[in-house]
Specification:
Elements lengths: L2 H12 L6 E5 L7 E6 L4 E6 L11 H16 L3 E6 H5 L2 H12 L2
Parallel strand pairs: 3-4
Antiparallel strand pairs: 1-2, 2-3
Length: about 100
Amino acid sequence: MSDIEETLAWHILVARLPAPEREVRFHPTRKWRFDFAWREQRLAVEVEGGTWAGGRHTRGEGFAEDAEKYNAAVLLGWSVLRFTSAMVEDGTAVATIERFLAGRQ
């Protein structure tokens, strides 16, 4: 787990949201994983690191692979929320997750 994922996990705990599962395989044949998932609500959360530093998620092949993964997740009925490190750090991520879960209770 990355430091920023641990930060988001802490924010989720402090906000007293339902605990997510971590590193969840969701596809029947691919080895794709979500950083966080709430199976009952079919919510997946991905933390995209390196967005300003030319990380894997912003380069051609990595970006294309992520698009394939997220599209497959949606076709399987998942809602996927994606957050940058800055969105985790400033509280945007946990607030968005909270809004989603409140609408699914």
